[in-house]
Amino acid sequence: MRRSDAFAPLLFASLIACRSTDRATPPTGGALPPAGEQPHPAPPPAPAPSPTPSPPPAQLPGPCGDGAPYCAVDLTPGAAGEALSVDDDGRVLFFRQGEIHSPTDQRIYAIHDPRTGKAADVLSLPWWVGVVASDRLAMLYARYRDPVDDCYAFEVRIVAPDGTVEDLGMPPCDPASGVCHGGRITPVALAGRYAAVTWEVTSRRRAFVHVAGSGWVDLGTLGGDHAVPIALTESGDVAGVSSFDPTDYFLAIRFHPFLWRDGRMTDMQQTWGNAPRAMGRDGSVLLEQLHTPDGSLRTLRWKNGASRDLGLHPEYDSIQGLAASADGRSTVGRMRGGDASPARGFLHEDGVLYDLNSLLASHAFHVEEAVSIGGAATIAAKALAPDGTPHAVALIRQNAPSAGGGTHELPAAQILATGQRADALALDDSHVYWINQTGHGWITDYDGLHRYVSAFEVRSTPKSGGPVRVLAAGEGLSLDLAVSSTHVYFTAMQCDDAACAKTAQRLLRVNKGGGTLEVLGAGAGQIALDSSAAYVSSPDDGGRVLAYPLAGGRPLVVADQGGSGPGIAISGDDVYFDAVTAQCDFVRSVSKAGGAVSTRASSAGSMFSAMGRMKAHAGTIYFRGGTDVVRLPASSAGPIAWLRHGAGPASRADIDADAAHVYWTQSATLNYGMLACLHRTDVGARGDSCLSESIDDYTAVRADDTDVYFIRAGQILRVPK
After folding, report:
1. From edge to edge, which strands make up the β-sheet containing 698-703?
2. What single-letter DSSP state applies at residue 358?
3. Taking Cα atoms as reference points, which of 408, 367, 346, 397 lies closest to residue 71?
4. What average pLDDT does range 486-498 have in this prediction?
5. What was the pLDDT predicted at 82?
6. 609-721 placed in CATH 2.130.10.10
7. Which tens digits make up the pLDDT trace of 138-171?
8. Which residues, at least 6 apart from 683, have a Cβ–Cβ distance to it below 8 Å?
């Protein structure tokens, strides 16, 4: 799972958030809570509610006029920028900037009014003042003053929408040591008369709240050395996470969620069970549920003692709610899948979860994250231009999302199947097969227990188009598959004990018509098939290469050394495989019947990326070597050749080939202006082109006689050769 590092305290909280294994006792007598809700003990009594906010203004006129639910308005044309918040009148606070990290670069903070279409500048700050918290149109920031007496002093300020600045001073030094040297203050939240910050000093994080007219208050902890505020309300309630055991050492700190109210910090582990992300004006709390049975990351909306799961979008297994509307009807945030594609902004409204990109008719921008929702359901959002440049956008409501009118962000002419979380791809004459993956690895409970939780489905659809069919489902992480005339073979990392604290890598198969999963034995990485056997490496057994008869039975040990890499291929009577050791990387070969192992190529560096793969075609072995694309003759004669050198990284380095071309995947490096690409390279290294290029990740590619099939942002697409 991936996390934005824009707000350090939130990242910190998401990494250490925890969930108790205890369950609250169901209510005795009366009705059970509605489906999808869970009863919880009551939190501390709430103060009298603040005045109900005034009704939002009438729906703003849609500037696009295209009938879609939303229209994206670029607030930073020709420049990078980021949206921060939106108020009850639909006005958006954002910043724009010039060349990033230029010594003289300034971030210009401004307010855009969609009713007039104009923006007014508020103030400018150096680019390195990178963390700003905001509440509607006010903003909170902190930055270093000049060092005085060997102690780094900060200025912490609130800036009103009219540009008026209020200096809050500094929180008191660390109460335990009185030392502030090397400390760092990070703005977290701003609400009405209250401002919350994290002060990290002497390797400890402490939570402070500033109350207008009263000064700074140290919130304390639940018993440990750390406390991090995350959310704040206009009545002064603070939600966050805190360590609770003073004996925890720095790299193994356990945390519980807390609610600070009326000068008292209350442990909310039994009530919430998860870390808070935001607090609404209607009394609701958005909670981040990290530890789910399928490995997904979910958002729960807690209110009045019960929590409701916002659910998952079929294309993403991670959802993080960041803000709620004043009436609690709508929630916005970001979603992610398991690849390196940018996040997707979402809107959850009236029980339905929407990808905000699908609520637009024009896709000049990719909506990456919705950070705030205000009047007339206007959304402040972070977006990416097609070249990967970040922009601030205002999403203006034109029609109800339930009315439809938007389009999928991917090119309609290329789409074969959407609504997927695809991770691997295989073809036969009539169908496309893939692994649909939810969850991608290890999690750690608040009590320090490690568990491996993921779930997968084997899916297929006709090449001619049609419904997607689920052939089988199971637990584990699967990233490779291959098809024979009768079965789909795939490798998966699965639990190896009841607590899922240990794992094993296995080869499985299912009939192409669907049915029960069959575990064949040990196996990992890529799978090579011929007419009689399925070949895999087995790192759990010391790197052996195994051949499993397609007809069933015990596997043949083809080689008992060095098959620890992900790649494997068959050429003629030999099996080629990659071996990754601490000192060198190798390409090795052995007869399919077993025997002596030959080293065909070696490198003192990292020849193979962790997910590099091989393809054999017409007496040549093609493989991904780190950031390179390499060609190796299958015969003993002939040198290794680079088709591409320094091609760029790949989150899942896949490759395929035919008589004329090599097809391979490359991920984006947007910080350096490099887009992701589905490459087509001439086998003679005379030319290279992108069949598809975007900010999305490409994780698999397979070619048949007429088309190239590929996975982009987890969806199944194809283009003619």
Report:
1. 415-417, 715-720, 707-712, 698-703
2. G
3. 397
4. 92
5. 95
6. yes
7. 999 988 765 444 455 678 999 999 999 999 988 8
8. 620, 631, 643, 657, 659, 660, 661, 662
Q: How is domain 8-23+57-403 classified at the architecture level of CATH?
A: 7 Propeller (2.130)
Q: At residue 617, what are phi and psi to the nearest 5 degrees?
A: -155, 125
Tokens (6 digits) for 597: 């192992």
pLDDT in tens, 427-456: 999 999 999 999 876 665 555 555 667 899
Give bridge partners of residue 503 from the DSSP assignment: 495
Can you give the residue ranges of every domain in the chain? Answer: 8-23+57-403, 415-522, 609-721
pLDDT digits (tens, 9 = 90+) for 569-614: 999 999 999 877 666 778 889 999 999 998 888 775 555 544 579 9
Q: Is the pLDDT of residue 57 over 50?
A: no
Residue 105 in tokens: 């670069």
**Exposed, middle or buried by CB within 10 Å (0-12, 13-18, 19+), for 601?**
middle
Strand-pairing partners, residue 575, are 570, 590
Alpha carbons 383 and 385: distance in angstroms, whole number: 7
Distance CA 474, CA 482 (A): 17
Q: Do domains 8-23+57-403 and 609-721 have the same CATH topology?
A: yes
For residue 189, report the phi and psi dihedrals to the nearest 5 degrees.
-155, 155
Cβ pair 386, 695 in contact under 8 A: yes
Residue 281 has pLDDT above 60, yes or no: yes
